[in-house]
């Protein structure tokens, strides 16, 4: 009878490895360290006032919902480079949403995850533009073009905010939004000047998307109260129009090609919790994991 | 932004020159932590390590993300916490700051050289130089064969900080750490 090797069941192997690891690393346990997991603005301890929180929530929701929309394209974009581009843009926007929602949550003691996953549809404050469906690639580009031109104007102005946290988030975000705008402009020109079909689809997309533009520039009583903390939306219109007009001219598109008297501007209502039919299904998909498995992490 | 004065391997701009002995030791340890996505770069090379200071018995390390959504920052935080804890720093906190916003100007020259040796074309010029009415785009040198006959395939590469290039001379694709 040959001698049996010592039992090497999984538990004893794991224990041996743990003993080796302990010998090398000591008794380190990350779980016992206090982690500050959220990004913050210029001052980590800054707390938003209720009005500033309401404002940060609007912008955070815009970024979060557009990010969720764009994430859908991953593995479905027309080519690998576009998969990566749209995924990268979505990631930047998610970063902006994290910073903005974290700051918004300081007013009410909520985390960014509480705000993203545990609010219902009527509690979201995103404008309608960002909830619009992806449509075909041209629709995604048309939506992205309006969004990026607007965000660049917004964050440029907001980086001069008297609120240090908002100014820091805006100064960080504006550099990234510049890439998003460049991406959307290049594709707008390419689709407009490509084939008859690509131009036709772009014009359909602009026709469908343009009505959600005005909502971005509407002032309300929150902006009255914020004063120098945030630019008035209406004050961003001239800068937006300048870029928009230049892009259309380069693409040889006139406004008459995608606007007509029968389609006015949407009344919107996202800033007050009144949403299009598209937001609900998006939230159901975005929130299901967190709600089905509360506290889940990896 | 002028080049950062470097004293004893420490970036005195980032540290504000306020490092006491214990904080200097903590900086040295934290500075050796590498970027999980570009492992040849330390977080000091990258300019992500902004400050190390002592608050009583607490060691406070301040990091700044490269891009807002960069997932590597969470790994860097954990790695800094581990590295300091292993070296006997018991009470460690890692803060994040967004301001002043990171640009590739924070990357050290040593970091740029390491990037190129690793096969990633480093940033070609200082951030902000391409702004203005006539943007100037400098040629990006192929890190493999050194040719300037290269072409940007996509501004969005394998990570947020990189764009995707191809070399028209040696026909190899490569990453470029884009000026930001």
Automatic annotation (TrEMBL), chain A:
GO cellular component, one term: cytosol
Gene3D superfamilies referenced in this protein's UniProt entry, alphabetically: 1.20.1260.10
One matching Pfam family: PaaA_PaaC
Biological processes annotated in GO: phenylacetate catabolic process
UniProt superkingdom: Bacteria
Entry-linked SUPFAM superfamilies: Ferritin-like (SSF47240)
Protein name (record): Ring-1,2-phenylacetyl-CoA epoxidase subunit PaaC
UniProt lineage: Bacteria, Bacillati, Actinomycetota, Actinomycetes, Micrococcales
TrEMBL record, chain B:
Gene3D superfamilies: Fe-S cluster assembly (FSCA)
SUPFAM superfamilies from the UniProt entry: Fe-S cluster assembly (FSCA) domain-like (SSF117916)
TM annotation in the entry: none
Family annotation (Pfam families): FeS_assembly_P, Zn_ribbon_PaaD
Top-level lineage group: Bacteria
Residue stretches making up the PaaD zinc beta ribbon domain: 139-178
Residue ranges occupied by any MIP18 family-like domain in the UniProt entry: 32-95
PANTHER family linked to this entry: 1,2-PHENYLACETYL-COA EPOXIDASE, SUBUNIT D-RELATED, FE-S PROTEIN MATURATION AUXILIARY FACTOR YITW
Protein name (record): Ring-1,2-phenylacetyl-CoA epoxidase subunit PaaD
Originating species: Agrococcus jenensis
């Amino acid at each position: 009878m040959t001698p049996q090797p010592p039992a090497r069941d999984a538990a004893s192997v794991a224990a041996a490895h743990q003993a080796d690891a302990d010998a090398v690393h000591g008794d380190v346990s990350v779980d016992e360290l206090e982690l500050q997991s959220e990004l913050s603005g210029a001052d980590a301890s800054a707390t938003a006032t209720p009005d500033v929180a309401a404002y940060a929530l609007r912008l955070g929701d815009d970024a979060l919902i557009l990010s969720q929309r764009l994430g859908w394209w991953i593995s479905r974009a027309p080519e690998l480079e576009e998969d990566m581009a749209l995924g990268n843009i979505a990631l930047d926007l998610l970063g902006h949403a994290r910073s903005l929602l974290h700051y918004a949550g300081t007013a009410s003691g909520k985390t960014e995850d509480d705000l993203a996953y545990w609010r219902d549809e009527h509690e979201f404050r995103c404008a309608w533009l960002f909830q619009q469906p992806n449509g075909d690639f041209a629709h995604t580009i048309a939506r992205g073009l309006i969004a990026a031109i607007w965000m660049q104007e917004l964050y440029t102005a907001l980086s001069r905010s008297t609120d240090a946290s908002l100014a820091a988030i805006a100064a960080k975000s504006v550099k990234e939004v510049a890439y998003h705008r460049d991406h959307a402009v290049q594709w707008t020109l390419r689709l407009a000047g490509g084939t008859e079909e690509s131009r036709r689809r772009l014009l359909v997309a602009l026709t469908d998307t343009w009505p959600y533009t005005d909502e971005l520039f509407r002032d309300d009583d929150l902006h009255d109260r914020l004063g120098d903390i945030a630019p008035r939306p209406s004050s961003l219109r001239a800068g937006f129009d300048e870029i928009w007009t230049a892009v259309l001219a380069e693409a040889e598109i006139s406004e008459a090609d995608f606007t007509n008297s029968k389609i006015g501007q949407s009344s919107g209502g996202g800033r007050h919790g009144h949403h299009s039919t598209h937001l609900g299904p998006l939230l159901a998909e975005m929130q299901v994991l967190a709600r089905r498995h509360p506290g889940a992490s990896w | 932004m002028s080049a950062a004065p470097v004293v004893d391997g420490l970036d005195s701009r980032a540290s504000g020159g306020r490092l006491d002995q214990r904080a200097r030791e903590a900086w040295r340890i934290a500075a050796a932590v590498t970027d999980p996505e570009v492992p040849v770069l330390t977080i000091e090379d990258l300019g992500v390590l902004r400050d190390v200071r002592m608050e009583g018995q607490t060691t406070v390390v301040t990091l700044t993300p490269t891009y807002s959504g960069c997932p590597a920052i969470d790994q860097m935080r954990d790695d800094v916490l581990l590295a300091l804890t292993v070296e006997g720093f018991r009470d460690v906190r890692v803060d994040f700051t967004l301001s002043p916003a990171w640009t590739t100007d924070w990357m050290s020259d040593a970091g740029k050289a390491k990037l190129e040796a690793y096969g990633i074309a480093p940033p070609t010029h200082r951030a902000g130089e391409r702004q203005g009415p006539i943007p100037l785009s400098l040629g990006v040198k192929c890190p493999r064969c050194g040719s300037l006959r290269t072409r940007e395939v996509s501004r969005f590469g394998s990570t947020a900080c990189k764009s995707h290039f191809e070399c028209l001379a040696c026909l190899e694709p490569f990453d470029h750490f884009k000026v930001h």
